[in-house]
Amino acid sequence: MILTISTTARPATDLGYLLHKHPDRVQEFTQSCGVARVFYPEANEDRCTAALLLDVDAIRLARTSRGSTPDYALGQYVNDRPYAVSSLLSVALADVFRSARAGRCAMRPELAAIPLPLEISLPALPCRGGPELAERLFRPLGWVVDAEAVPLDDAFPEWGDSRYVRLTLSGDIRLADALNHLYVLLPVLDDAKHYWVASDEVDKLIRAGASWLAEHPDRTLITDRYLRHQSALTRSAFERLAELGDDVEEQLAPPVDEEPDSDTVPAADTVVRTPLNVLRRKAVLGVLGELDVRRVIDLGCGSGQLVSALLDNPGFTEIVGVDVSTRALTLTARRLRLDRMPERRRERLQLFQAALTYTDRRFAGYDAAVLMEVIEHIDPPRLTALEQVVFGTARPGHVLVTTPNAEYNVRYTDLHGVRHRDHRFEWSRPEFRSWAATVCDVHGYSVDFRPVGDDDPEVGSPTQMAVFTRMGGGDD
């Protein structure tokens, strides 16, 4: 099985730096099922192509699979695995391009951080769902998708198509994102894995999908298939995804156009819970309503879920979304359909890029500021700077801060460490209250604490919220 990655970004040979593989050499990497080789069929200033070829040893594969899936139990020595793309290639890709997947490139760090014109080719991809499913999964990620069904036999067209597709992806995508898309979606399209899926697969999925999975329209299908239809793992993954974005599905049922398997249909007694991110957003909106504020600034707005909800309420007359990430602001604009937004609605909205640890006069003048799941992404030594910017200089009438409650983490099955890899810390309830008390003493605010989500009698709620009010009320 083979995968090719091409670019035309001049000088195209910089692809070798990004992949950490020299274009002038063939490199071999031993895998549990055989040998992976990386080589470059073409490498010049105008176009460079890297190929990952996985040479599968059928005997070694049969000895290591232990018949753990039907694909291998029925045909241990004669099957399509040496020729068709599968989870074998996904695992090899993760191993061979580990640094590239993480976005690390010491020699060309600026290239690792920006989208590049890429073309990816997979000549034989098993796809349970056909070319249409490949289009559905890759197109929302920014790819132009060319998926063509492979006939069972060119000489007998009346036999119809096989379950394989020829897939070509093209688009301006960051290389690390492209590799993570492939790592997750190749076994999803195949709907099979060559190894036993355990709880650590949830961590792998969250790491690879951190920047895109929570907002993918087919995240339910992707999560369910990637975790081999194990409902307990799927529920755990959705709990974790709730920390990444506000669009996680509210129920773990397959989409209406997905053919359900017997082991993917939720049991009759399955409890369908509202995701924590939805509860968090509703809690913030509820408090803003109680405070009867009109002008709100969302500091660290991400992809704009709260901004969108604020716009839907005409009682908020001025709404501002701020984020340090230009990509997040692009997603916000896309979510809000900014280019087609009615003029009166558009007049209430402003979006701009800024860092929350640097004084910015545009932060001032609002009735309320919201820091929803933001502070835990700030390095602790920089928190004092954020406090000064928000509470000391901007000084809104109210500040709403939500952050994970570290004590509640024991209630998340299969969670090891913090909830998100970008969290610099997660506070217990006493730690959060201590921080809030210091902020009040230094900057002249009072504070009220609210639970968000189920308030467990032993460990508290999953999210904790502090509502700060400037002493003296209105203007200084």
Automatic annotation (TrEMBL):
What does this protein need as cofactor? Mg(2+)
Gene3D superfamilies referenced in this protein's UniProt entry, alphabetically:
Hen1, N-terminal domain, Vaccinia Virus protein VP39
UniProt keyword annotations, A-Z: Magnesium, Metal-binding, Methyltransferase, RNA-binding, RNA-mediated gene silencing, S-adenosyl-L-methionine, Transferase
Domain Hen1 N-terminal, which positions?
1-242
Q: Which reaction does it catalyse?
A: small RNA 3'-end nucleotide + S-adenosyl-L-methionine = small RNA 3'-end 2'-O-methylnucleotide + S-adenosyl-L-homocysteine + H(+)
State the SUPFAM superfamilies in the record.
Answer: S-adenosyl-L-methionine-dependent methyltransferases
Enzyme Commission number(s) of this protein: 2.1.1.386
Q: Do you know which Pfam families this protein is assigned to?
A: Hen1_L, Methyltransf_12
What does the sequence similarity comment in the record state about its family? Belongs to the methyltransferase superfamily. HEN1 family.
Q: What is this protein called?
A: Small RNA 2'-O-methyltransferase
